[in-house]
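ZP: hey, is the oxa(dethia)-CoA complex queued? I don't see it on the tracker
AM: it wasn't, my bad. submitting now with these inputs:
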Amino acid sequence: MTPAPTPSTPPPAQPTFTRGVRIAGVGSALPERILSNADLEKIMDTSDEWIVQRTGIRERRIHDPKTGPSTTDLATEALQKALDRAGMVGSDLDLVLCATMTPDMPTPSVSCLVADRIGAGQIAAIDLNGACSGFVYAMNCAHDFIRIGSQTTIGVIGADLITRFVDYSTFGRAAAILFGDAAGACILQACDDTSKGLLAQAMHSDASRAKHLFIPCCERDFFDVEYDERRVNSVQMNGQAVFRFAVTTFPKLIEQTLESAGVQAGDVDHYICHQSNARILTAARDRFGLPEDRFHINIGSRGNTVAASIPLILDELTQSGRVKEGQKIMFLAFGAGLTWGSSLWQL
Ligand code: UT7
């Protein structure tokens, strides 16, 4: 007897959303103090030539430990500019979502303090730690909060004062040359045009490789990295391992994100990657044959600013009129955790 045909399982119903999500305003903030490669030559065994050749960095902005600014100062300034440019005030927001791994104190969070300073009232305030992937994680989460209708207007921030955790001696030089401080922010808002918002996104982590990039906060061996008092509270990095991870991850992430959105590399108007090292970035750019005006690099003057690096570039491009409504833009990041993720937007 022929077996009865197995009823095929219907594909899961795709949710239909009645709102789109738009980027309504962008802002950023930098400390005034410049730390050039020549400054670094005076305090550790390094050279401008070595740094430029290996990383593409010439200078970075850093805070002053005594006079600031703090993470909260930079985050507030960036968000206030984004609000001004969106024609909004703090009380228009439902949520402040701040990606940071360097809050000024364990509690209260940066987002709580920022919400108060911008006069947002008693709204939700969340800090999220995704290290250098934090801004991408935050954009993806904030988008979905709006898309499903639980929030309408969200201030998303990426802010880090990573140089608080840098050892400016020859012992810490591999990491010290890379980092700078900054904040960037954007306002996400619900809109009627349902085509606006995320076309595809990805978020990943893998702590089996955490030992390659971490900040130990007390005196004991972490992972299999031997305790040394100079390591406490300073970035510990296996530069070559992180480099290898990054050069393989960026192209894969771009491919996967394009595929899940069903678009070609050339359809995306702007690629904004976390600024980690110019060599990592140019390798990804060359792999896809993308021109410089689509695949952006500003690490030369900013260094690696952790969660702030993507919104810093987004702000530069927006203020110069290069980012426009109707375009597609992809954000890509990797960082400590290890973490990595992408966010492809229809503007
Ligand atoms: O957000 C993620 C953050 N991290 C990254 O993206 C890091 C990715 N990795 C990198 O950017 C690179 O690995 C670095 C820039 C950190 C290092 O460049 P590298 O070409 O991988 O250098 P290396 O670690 O292989 O070191 C080569 C040499 C070593 O000397 P010896 O052992 O060959 O005598 C280092 O001690 O360069 C030395 N070195 C330096 N020399 C001058 C390491 N740092 C410095 C320095 N100045 N700042």
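AM: back. The radius of gyration is 21 Å.
ZP: great, adding it to the tracker
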